[in-house]
C-alpha cells in the first residue's frame, strides 16, 4: 500500500487517505447508494456488482494505466469510507478497449455501439 501511495503522489495526486482525512466523502450522496447496491445484490441473488468503463482515448497507455490504478484505489477507499468494505470483494470493474471502434468516440457513439 505504501508503494501505491507513493505512485499516486508521484503522479501529482494526493493520497486517497489524505483526501478522506481532510475532505471526507467526495461522492455525491443521493439516498444511500450502498444500500441500493446491497439491495440489488440480494434481489438478484448475484453477489457481483460493478462498473463498465469504455476507453475512448489511446494517446497514452501510461496515462490510461495511471487512471485505472487511481480509479480502482478511489473505489476501494470510498467503499471503506462508507463502511462497505465487504462489497469490495464482489466489485467488478470491467474495461472495454477497442482502438478500432472506440478511439475518439463520444458518449453517444459508445451508446450506439453497445445498445
Sum this structure up briefly.
It contains 6 helices and 2 strands. It has 115 residues and is of the alpha+beta class.
Describe the structure.
By secondary structure, the protein is of the alpha+beta class. It has one domain. The chain is 53% helix and 12% strand. It is built from six helices and two strands. A two-stranded parallel ribbon has the order 1-2. About 4% of the residues have low confidence.
Give the SSE map.
Layout: H1 2-10, H2 16-23, H3 33-44, E1 49-55, H4 61-81, E2 91-97, H5 99-102, H6 107-113
Parallel strand pairs: 1-2
Which class do the helix and strand fractions yield?
A: alpha+beta
Q: How many domain units?
A: 1
Return the string of H and E elements.
HHHEHEHH
**Uncertain runs with pLDDT below 50, 5 residues or more?**
25-29
Helix content: 40-55%
Name its key features.
115 residues; alpha+beta; two-stranded parallel sheet; 2 strands; 53% helix; globular
Amino acid at each position: 500500500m505504501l508503494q501505491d501511495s507513493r505512485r499516486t503522489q508521484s503522479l501529482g495526486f494526493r493520497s486517497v487517505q489524505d483526501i478522506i482525512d481532510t475532505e471526507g466523502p467526495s461522492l455525491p450522496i443521493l439516498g444511500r447508494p450502498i444500500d441500493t447496491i446491497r439491495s440489488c445484490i440480494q434481489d438478484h441473488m448475484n453477489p457481483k456488482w460493478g462498473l463498465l468503463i469504455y476507453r475512448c482515448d489511446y494517446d497514452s497507455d501510461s496515462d490510461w494505466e495511471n487512471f485505472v490504478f487511481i480509479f480502482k484505489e478511489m473505489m476501494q477507499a470510498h467503499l471503506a469510507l462508507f463502511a462497505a468494505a465487504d462489497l469490495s470483494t464482489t466489485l467488478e470493474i470491467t474495461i472495454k478497449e477497442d482502438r478500432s471502434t472506440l478511439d475518439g468516440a463520444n458518449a453517444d457513439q459508445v451508446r450506439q455501439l453497445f445498445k
